[in-house]
From TrEMBL:
It comes from Exophiala xenobiotica. The lineage of its organism: Eukaryota, Fungi, Dikarya, Ascomycota, Pezizomycotina. Gene3D superfamilies: N-terminal domain of ligase-like. This is AMP-dependent synthetase/ligase domain-containing protein. InterPro entries: ANL_N_sf (IPR042099).
């Protein structure tokens, strides 16, 4: 898992790009990745955007198609988000409690804070 700043440095180095090309994928998290950096890296390997919070950890997400590297594809079964419209084209992810899941592993926020409705 790399930071966007580390990805930017890799994208500037031909040697690093050759080495990155040996990997099945590179995952990044911690902020947005500039388009030019992501597009450069995806010419050499698959790029996977990761998302996480202290309380929810990193919800299960699938790798997207190579050209869709800047998007998230969350598992509807294990991440179980509802997207609330906040206006201006922005949405807020609200994790919904799923009693069928082991909250400790897939929805830790409800294990840490059992009183949350979600």
């Amino acid at each position: 898992m790399l930071t966007p700043a580390t990805c930017a440095q890799l994208a500037k180095s031909e040697r690093a790009l050759r080495l990155v090309g040996r990997l099945k994928y590179v995952a990044y998290a911690g902020g947005p990745l500039p388009d030019d950096v992501g597009n450069t890296l995806t010419r050499h390997t698959r790029l996977v955007a990761r998302y996480g919070h202290t309380e929810i950890m990193s919800p299960l997400a699938y790798a997207t198609e190579w050209e869709d590297w800047q998007y998230y594809h969350f598992s509807s079964e294990y991440a179980n988000f509802r997207w609330d419209d906040m206006g201006d084209g922005k949405y807020e992810a609200v994790m919904l409690r799923n009693a069928k899941l082991l909250s400790r592993y897939y929805q830790p926020v409800f294990w840490i804070f059992p009183g949350l409705e979600g």
